[in-house]
Amino acid sequence: MSEPMVMSNNIEQAEKGTSLWQDAWIRLRKNKLALFGLGVIVFLCIIALLTPLIAPYGYEEQDLVLGASPPSAEHWLGTDIFGRDMLTRIMYGSRVSLMVGFIATGVALVIGVLWGTIAGYAGGRVDAVMMRLVDILYALPFMIFIILLMVIFGRNILLLFLAIGAVEWLTMARIVRGQVLSLRRQEFIEAAVSLGLSRWTIIRRHLIPNTLGPVIVYTTLTIPSVMLLEAFLSFLGLGIQPPQSSWGLLISYGVETMEEYPWLLLFPGLTLSITLFALNFLGDGLRDALDVRSSKD
Amino acid sequence: MFRFILSRLLQAIPVLLVVITATFFLVRAAPGGPFSAEKAVPPEVIKALEAQYKLDQPVWQQYISYLGDLAQGDFGPSFRYPGRTVDELIYGGLPITAELALYAMLVAIIIGVSAGVFAALKPNTPQDYVPMSAAMVGICMPSFLMGPLLVLIFGIWLEWLPVSGWGDLPGDKLLPAITLGTGYAAFLARLSRGGMLEVMSQDYIRTARAKGLPEWVVVLKHGLRGGLIPVVAFLGPAFAGLLSGSFVVETIFQIPGLGRFYVQAAFNRDYTMILGTTVFFATLIILFNLLSDIIAVWINPKLRHQVQGGS
Amino acid sequence: MPMQKNNNLRTTALLFTWLVFISLVGCSGGENNVTTGNRDGILHWGNGTDPQELDPHIITGIPEHHILTALLEGLVAKDPATLEPIPAVAKSWNISSDGKTYTFQLRHNAVWSNGDPVTSHDFAWSWWRALQPALGNQYAYMLFPIKNSEAYAKGEIDDFSKVGVKVIDDYTLEVELNNATPYFLQLLDHYSMFPVHRPTIEKFGKPDERGSLWTRPGNFVGNGPFTLKEWKLFKRVDVVKNPQYWDANKVKLNGIRFHPIENVTTEERMFRSGQLHHTASIPIDKVATYKKDKPHLLHTYPYLGNYFYRINTTLPHLKDKRVRQALAMSINSKQLTEQVTKGGEVPAYTFTPPDTLGYTAKSAFEFNPEKAKQLLADAGFPNGEGFPVTELLYNTSEGHRKIAVAIQQMWNQYLGVNIILNNQDWKVYLDSVNNGDYTIARAGWIGDYVDPNTFLDMWVKDGGNNRTGWSNPRYDELILKLAPKTADRNLRYQLMAEAEAILLEDMPIIPIYIYNSKSLVHPSLKGLQPNILNYVLYKNLSLDTNLSGVKLN
């Protein structure tokens, strides 16, 4: 870190120049791809939120006589075999996919950050035990467990969040712990300790905010892998269940009929890919922007 | 070194035990038994079936006897295929999944590493951007999207390659291998690029060049060794990913491999098959991670000394 | 200097990639299965899922049935055109005047594939084996018309000699039934009644040992037109012509390869590339295209089965039959079959498919949304007000979902009733239905034999397949007591029609459509005769080499 951190609730400006965050923002702005990614995500989130108001058709509105039809003036992205408007379906699907992405990542985030911070700060045996657990869990074939859980307990969307979150928190914990370990030796932490601040306060006020950089980066990169995981499960028939729809589910339907009605596969597939693309670029850009030392990759 | 390996092996055993136990009880808790059928099964038949598969014993007893059998390498009879044992099914499906994973890995390594190294040689030029963007596409396009697309283009529209099967028709191994390998190729491209970039800026590379060695010797002999460290470290966890990726690829291409067996077994409530494949996969993954750790330590002189010198 | 290294690197990389490519692709070219099959006389048959087993007393599925009817033969077979019984191992039979005793004369030249003669001892022993509880034979009930067989299977009697199977001599078998069962001869063609080779089974384990090795290639001894050559799990099952088969000169095929292809889309693609002569099914969305462009490749025919919804009549709001009738009358099955399922299925207004061996029940209801609305109002839910949240259960499948979604909309539109959809995967769904843990559930029933009884005896009180909580004493009386004892077919049918009328009036089930068998058939495959059981007699099939190159696209 190039600038000295000052003890306070928020990360404040140093004496001269810009703060770390403003610096990062400037760097990010220069990265066209990352900006593109940010733009896409913001656009999608807005659409997802506004969907019930702006969707051209009802979600389950069928037109059995029409059946599947290619893109046209009334249906910009075509219709599926029930005559349901694909644009509407994709818009509603975005709500589910993004929701799973954010919430499951949130679960991973909370668990991972807490775990990593406690392990890193406590050190010693507590750290060893906690990280050993992480190592062990890392070795487990999680996909297998998730499949099993989904098959056994039915496709409960809550369970989906938990299951996916439970897979992703491990790396988060490792990253956070690494950060905390290096932070712990910094002088300002020693100062806080000597001031008599409680361990919990130190963790909350000083450690966690300072780990935010890598956490943000990693979170942004976790969201796409969570969305991918959900799509994967839905494709196998184990994730989101109808009548809800996610992009993964739409893709699996599209695969079945991709010869006659390729647009049923192409549009959801494109949407998912572009979203993942955008998130990855954003994550990469954030990483470059926030970590001064990392080489351009 | 030996102690390192031994200690890792010993640590693996409780992990395996946890996996077995968790799966065993999870599976038993599942609704929907293996013998449910659409036409009503007479109670005396159900009783006979349960007795034969020891399902009428208390769960604890079943668990203990399962562990006992497992220790002898006996995974038990399959519920769904009465005449077959789970070992038989696993060993039948294993070579196929292994072959698929191997080809996918080959595809990934060859394409990925070459692309990454290639890009690293001229950073921030089109030679860099093009492969890296392609890599990004590879990462972002899930296998269950890429697979069907490849099938659509090469199997149906162009009719160059078969759309399914494994080993039945010439060329039917190509599309599945590519589908499974592309995501990893992309990852490896980025990793090897990063690794190479870091290595190529090191002093000893400059020394080698100053010595007048031809560039390709510099790259291949000196650069690659260091640059590939992150790649090797990645291979272990990549293997786990390949296994789970195989579920989808085997389903799409109708490949009779272990991945597809597992998904089907889960749906069919074939208890022994689920348990057997889970244990098998877990063992493989643990072994592979161990192998990858060992190789990573071996390749990296710093770590090697650490391990040999320390505990 | 950098340039040179680039070139070397590039060439090395390219070389590598090319090598890998070559090894993966292999040499291309080669003939497809239809061409080689027609030349060698091998039929390539798409067979759905992989067979679980090949022991006729353990299996339960249709893919297994297709393989076993090649490997084994029962006393009696069926004429594919009329489905009337024709001689198989039994060359003739007599039926006593009261219809309860059948005496079969076995032909003397029927032999097992190892040369042993097929005798009536084989049948007696096989049926004894079929009833052993330890085998877990889910079709043991096919034998229950035989006197005391049910009691023996349930363990109520211990002595098999009390069961109505008697070996008169090596080639004469006498069977005594509980009642005059007019469809008994049809039952004999079900695989659970096929004979099995005793010495082979006993060589590999106990007779009631489930899943012993006797069914493996090389061990399997059968009396059918083909023998088992290879069984590669998840790849194929190969059978070859059995020269010992008593009717071998009528068999024109040299062998059959059964391909286990679960995915219908994949199967259709394989058919199009000429890898299959016959598919097990066809993707729903392709039916229209085939009907329009290539109708000669598409074979559809009514199938002896009914797609219906079960209603849990024990629930308070579904107790009133007017509610159930309202639900039934607001389903536009015609629109459903034309626009949703699109497979050419026939809407069902009775439970037993029409013209089941001459039996046609009277249509009991029709699509009449006005009347439905009125009935619902009469039952206390005008315009669906106050109708509790009702769940429609189906097992996970695109096809069932489509139908459920369409019906959900119809009920909403015509009755104002709101239904939530729930799907579970197969095993869970079965458990739910078996335990009565459902409100309305999708179901399907395929007849085991061609007679209305197989559709109607389900609904007796506490019948194992009932599961709706409905029963009616007069119905039970007709089905269990009166009809079985009636020898005259017309009278019997009248009684059954009366029972079916009761069933449809009370409506614990809502029939939706009659199943349809659909397959893609290559023009070079000759001799297939469509029928309501989708029954195939392999001896009638042949392959025409001249038609190998027919364009399929």
Written account of the structure:
The complex is a heterotrimer of chains A (297), B (311) and C (553). Chain A has 297 residues and is mostly helical. Chain A has helices at residues 20-30, 32-54, 86-122, 124-139, 142-153, 157-184, 187-194, 199-236, 247-256, 263-290. The longest helix of chain A has 38 residues, at 199-236. Chain A is elongated and about 75 Å long. The model of chain A is unreliable at 1-16 and 293-297 (pLDDT under 50). Chain B has helices spanning 2-29, 43-52, 59-71, 86-121, 126-140, 143-157, 174-200, 203-210, 215-227, 229-252, 258-268, 271-299, 301-309. By secondary structure, chain C is of the alpha+beta class. Chain C has helices spanning 2-25, 33-40, 62-71, 120-130, 149-153, 184-187, 198-204, 264-272, 284-293, 321-329, 333-341, 369-378, 398-415, 426-434, 453-456, 473-482, 489-506, and strands at residues 42-46, 76-78, 85-87, 90-95, 101-106, 165-169, 172-176, 226-232, 236-241, 255-259, 298-311, 346-347, 390-395, 419-424, 440-446, 509-520, 525-526, 542-543. The termini of chain C are far apart. Chains in contact: A-B, A-C, B-C. Chain A binds chain C through residues 60, 62, 64-65, 67-68, 81-82, 151, 154, 237, 241-243, 253, 256-257, 260-261, and chain C through 265, 283, 285-286, 289, 335, 339-340, 396, 398, 401-402, 405-406, 409, 421, 423-425, 428.
Supply the key terms.
heterotrimer; A: 297 residues; mainly alpha; MetI-like fold; elongated; disordered N terminus; B: 311 residues; 13 helices; 77% helix; flat
- Number of helical runs of chain C? 17
The number of distinct β-strands of chain C equals 18
Distance between the termini of chain C: 55 Å
Number of strands of chain B: 0
**Sequence stretches where pLDDT stays below 50 over 5 or more residues of chain C:** 1-6, 25-29
- The total count of helices of chain B amounts to 13
Could you list the spans of chain B in which at least 5 consecutive residues all have pLDDT below 50?
Answer: none
What's the end-to-end separation of chain B, in Å?
9 Å
